[in-house]
Design brief:
about 375 residues; mainly beta; Immunoglobulin-like; Elongation Factor Tu (Ef-tu), domain 3; Rossmann fold; seven-stranded antiparallel sheet; 6 helices; binds flavin-adenine dinucleotide; binds nicotinamide-adenine-dinucleotide
Length: about 375
């Protein structure tokens, strides 16, 4: 079916075209949607195999080709955000004229529900591993040069390893390398690295294998997934983050986004539940951030404190939440995000409901 200019054809299926110069191949995708951004474009090019996925709401458009000729490592992605045009610019290896772009692979030029598209993995190199606490480490993975991928705030990826001959897959939530440095100036925040804060369990199948990886080893990383929407934060005046243990990980990018990009926020409060004092992740950074930004407050709650702990104690409960989660004004627009072990999240949501908060005022991070 042709799209005739000027008609009100409501076919929102994206389409693509391509052209070449002596040295370049440009693939242009017309998404037919406004508000495109770099997080919605995931491109991988390995040898002659090109895979370009564009996320459009709950749908996914895919370009998947065996290219006609070899290309050089690395490519550019240009996005005309307002008109919804995406360009993938490949560099020819040899100065030859391409007769065709390539041979279409199985899912080429399909536009389907995102959930019906299988996860795609690329191999990432472990470049560093640093201690955060006695059992938690910060892993830095490097994406291949020929991958364009950014993990949006509130989303997770899946890691895949072969353990004792079997493929094992677990979800992890990428964070920032720090909450207190100015990331925009750091060379390590160039989009080529993924930072993961992972607790190593002494009998954990996946985390034990991960902990045994050497610098330079590879691990497979999927494209991002998750149903958190930044727009939920963009209209809030009070933001509450309830995190337990490594349930802190989705809060990292969320905190940074809230404090640097959401001007209507008046208060941001993290209530951080841990067993013991030495389990608290990034305590110094959180305290430093609270000093630096008056809108931000952090409260630590321990379930197994020592006698000398002067702060809050216990687990998540109605009384604790009624005390700690309060609107800054009677009619403040509030968002409460919650993440941790499943029973923690379930109890938290139940307590918040009992306190009168609506479904729209909460977001629970789950698998
Ligand atoms: P398993 O072999 O599954 O478990 C072995 C033993 O370890 C258990 O018997 C228990 O003693 C202990 N254990 C394992 N899992 C848990 C648990 N969930 N709670 C309490 N004890 C446990 N983890 C992170 O460290 N960082 C993240 O950023 C992160 N992001 C996640 C995002 C999502 C969406 C989800 C659903 C989970 C996330 N997790 C994260 C948890 C992660 O996916 C694994 O469940 C965790 O790493 C344990 O895997 P394992 O194979 O080592 O342990
Ligand atoms: P942990 O065992 O060290 O416990 C931390 C705190 O969680 C405790 O101090 C307690 O306050 C609370 N808690 C634990 N079990 C509870 C229970 N049964 N009921 C009420 N409160 C409870 O935590 P951890 O080992 O760091 O585990 C973190 C959890 O967060 C994991 O289960 C992980 O899968 C989950 N997680 C989920 C996501 C996500 O869904 N997006 C992201 C990251 C982590």
């Amino acid at each position: 079916e042709k799209n005739i200019p000027g008609t009100s054809a409501r076919d929102l299926t994206p389409s693509y075209d391509w052209f070449q110069t002596d040295g370049l191949i440009t693939i242009v995708v017309y998404t037919k949607q406004k508000d495109m951004n770099a997080e919605l474009v995931i491109v991988d090019c390995q040898d002659k195999r090109l895979r370009g996925e564009i996320i459009l709401a709950d749908h996914s458009y895919l370009i998947e080709l065996d290219l006609d000729h070899a290309v050089r490592e690395g490519f550019d992605v240009n996005i005309a955000e307002k008109v919804g045009k995406v360009e993938i610019i490949l560099k020819k290896k040899d100065n030859v004229h391409w007769k065709v772009l390539g041979r279409p692979l199985e899912s080429h030029n399909t536009f389907i529900k995102r959930t019906d598209r299988g996860l795609f993995y690329r191999k990432c190199k472990l470049v560093s591993k640093t201690e955060v606490t006695h059992d938690t480490k910060l892993f830095c993975l490097m994406l291949p040069k020929s991958t364009h991928l950014q993990v949006p705030t509130g989303q997770h990826v899946y890691l895949k390893q072969v353990i004792a001959g079997t493929e094992v897959v677990k979800p992890y939530t990428p964070i920032l390398p720090s909450l207190t440095l100015d990331f925009k100036q750091l060379s390590c925040h160039d989009g080529a690295h993924i930072y993961l804060m992972i607790k190593i369990y002494s009998c954990g199948l996946f985390t034990q294998a991960l902990d045994h990886l050497q610098i330079g080893d590879y691990v497979s990383v999927s494209s991002p997934e998750g149903n958190f929407k930044k727009s939920q934060v963009q209209t809030s005046e009070d933001l509450f983050l309830l995190a337990a243990g490594t349930g802190f990980t989705p809060m990292v990018k969320l905190l940074n986004f809230a404090l640097t990009e959401v001007s209507c926020l008046r208060t941001v409060k993290l209530i951080f539940f841990n067993k013991k004092e030495d389990d608290i992740l990034w305590r110094n950074q959180l305290e430093e951030l609270a000093l630096k930004d008056k809108r931000f407050e952090v409260q630590f709650v321990l379930s197994e404190p020592t006698k000398d702990w002067g702060g809050k104690q216990g687990k998540i409960s109605l009384s604790l939440l009624s005390e700690c989660v309060k609107r800054s004004r009677k009619d403040s627009k509030v968002l409460i995000c919650i993440c941790g072990p499943t029973p923690f999240t379930e109890q938290g949501v139940e307590c918040l409901r009992d306190l009168g908060y609506s479904q729209e005022e909460m977001h629970a991070f789950t698998a």
